[in-house]
């Protein structure tokens, strides 16, 4: 067997998805080997974070690859002209993500649509544009002798923005090309400097902000089901929500300490002198006062993107601990005796109102030698972001870098579940809001953060 013939056979076997010509249609059927001459080999490359067994692997943003071959004059792939496979970082690192084609027509003009996506987020069996990497190329002419190599590249910066289309495909890049480097924003970036005693270092990285599963939940007013990729720089964050004792110690100027009435149904935790709530999160604090407190320490109120990164375990999970729904001991929620059955489900077993910081058995994220607690429950938290719907210009789709929404209006974002809410609000991706001017709530607090780069 010639070197060229051996190469053709290896390419076909390396993927297990070789396509060959069948009777009556271009590129129909599949086979384990290809003819040694007259074939086109499509190499696929990407810089996207993919599943990997490597210890240094960034959390995967995609896990499936789909390749469709569409003949000239057709609007969809012929029968047998599509392949879908699970992908790993090693598949691309070892250059095994390739597809051999043996077209019956030598003049080229076939369109190759390549898509990288999350298998759990299909819409009617198809990857959504917003959550995919997609490139469409047109194939060159393929002589009867020899092998023609082309490369299709899927770049992270093009998430949600298809490159080429079936009507206007890009010219295929000739050759097998050089290997793409890994997308830098997804790599864990260490903190510069050391955290204070009450802080943890949160390494930079990328994650999916938003989860389509939110749209299937019973609380129709919830926002947060539209995914986009967010890349964050490293930052330091308070390991717990600001406590009553810490807030009082700051001695902010102006009358009083918190803005609410301490007697408001017994849920405002702040007291002007030491009392039983010292280790509980401070509540009945307006956004303005929360912002003032953080600024006095050289910090800022936690942003939505930073909060969701933490609350999803730095890996876009539904909850900080994983994917299974919480029980009453896992996080502080469902402790409002005045609410519905869902908001008082934990009253009999765990009491009412906010709890001392860190009371949720699984509501904690280990970062180095520090644990960040109360991300799923205890009290909701003011966010640095002005409120804007997920479809607004503030959020949109694609890749966002260290986003903070500054939309006009009088509403402020609030994140996280609380003692007064039910379990769905414990999910990392749920978004809620509050009018800034209203009387501060007894189930809303805050925490601070600062850059670490």
Total of DSSP H or I helical runs spanning 4+ residues: 6
Widest sheet, order of strands: 1-5-2-10-12
The major β-sheet equals:
5 strands, mixed
Strand content: 15-25%
CATH superfamily grouping of the largest domain? paralog of FGE (formylglycine-generating enzyme)
**Sequence stretches where pLDDT stays below 50 over 5 or more residues:** 1-32
Count of all domains:
2
Number-wise, the strands total 25
Percent range for helical residues?
10-25%
**Radius of gyration, whole Å:** 27 Å
- Indicate the CATH class of the largest domain: Alpha Beta
State the distance separating the first and last CA atoms.
Answer: 58 Å
Here the CATH topology of the largest domain equals paralog of FGE (formylglycine-generating enzyme)
Name the average pLDDT. 87
What class do helices, strands and sheet pairing give? alpha+beta
Verbal overview:
This protein is 10% helix and 24% strand. The protein folds into 2 domains: 3-183, no CATH class; 199-451, paralog of FGE (formylglycine-generating enzyme). It has 453 residues and is of the alpha+beta class.
């Amino acid at each position: 067997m010639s070197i060229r013939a051996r190469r053709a056979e290896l390419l076909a076997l390396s993927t297990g998805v070789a396509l060959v010509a069948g009777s009556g249609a271009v590129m129909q059927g599949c086979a384990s080997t290809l003819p040694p001459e007259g074939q086109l080999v499509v190499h696929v490359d990407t810089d996207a974070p993919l599943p990997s067994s490597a210890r240094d692997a960034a959390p995967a943003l995609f896990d499936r690859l789909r390749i469709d071959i569409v003949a000239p004059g057709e609007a969809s792939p012929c029968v047998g002209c599509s392949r879908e496979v699970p992908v790993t970082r090693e598949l691309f690192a070892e250059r095994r993500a390739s597809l051999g084609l043996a077209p019956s027509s030598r003049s080229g003009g076939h369109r190759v649509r390549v898509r990288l996506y999350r298998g759990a987020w299909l819409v009617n069996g198809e990857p959504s544009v917003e959550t995919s990497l997609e490139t469409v190329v047109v194939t060159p002419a393929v002589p009867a002798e020899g092998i023609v190599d082309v490369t299709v590249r899927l770049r992270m910066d093009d998430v949600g923005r298809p490159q080429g289309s079936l009507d206007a495909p890009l010219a295929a890049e000739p050759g097998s090309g050089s290997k793409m480097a890994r997308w830098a924003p997804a790599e864990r970036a260490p903190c510069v400097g050391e955290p204070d005693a009450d802080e943890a270092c949160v390494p930079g990285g990328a994650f999916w902000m938003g989860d389509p599963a939110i749209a299937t939940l019973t609380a129709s007013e919830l926002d947060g089901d539209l995914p986009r990729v967010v890349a964050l720089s490293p930052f330091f964050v308070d390991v717990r929500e600001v406590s009553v004792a810490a807030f009082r110690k700051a001695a902010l100027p102006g009358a009083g300490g918190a803005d609410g009435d301490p007697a408001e149904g017994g849920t405002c935790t702040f007291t002007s002198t030491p009392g039983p709530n010292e280790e509980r999160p401070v509540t009945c604090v307006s956004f303005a006062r929360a912002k003032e407190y953080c600024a006095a320490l050289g910090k800022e109120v936690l942003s939505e993107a930073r909060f969701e990164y933490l609350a999803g375990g730095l890996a876009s999970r539904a909850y900080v601990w994983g994917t299974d729904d919480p029980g009453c001991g896992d996080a502080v929620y469902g402790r409002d005796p005045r609410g519905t059955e869902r908001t008082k489900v934990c009253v009999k077993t765990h009491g009412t109102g906010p709890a001392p910081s860190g009371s949720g058995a699984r509501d904690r994220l280990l970062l180095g030698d520090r644990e960040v607690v109360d991300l799923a429950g205890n009290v909701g938290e003011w966010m640095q972001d002005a409120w804007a719907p997920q479809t607004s210009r503030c959020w949109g789709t694609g890749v966002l870098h260290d986003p903070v929404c500054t939309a006009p209006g009088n509403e402020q974002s609030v994140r996280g579940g609380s003692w007064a809410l039910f379990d769905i609000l414990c999910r990392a991706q749920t978004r809620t809001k509050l009018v800034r001017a209203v009387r501060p709530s007894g189930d809303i607090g805050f925490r601070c953060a600062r850059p670490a780069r």
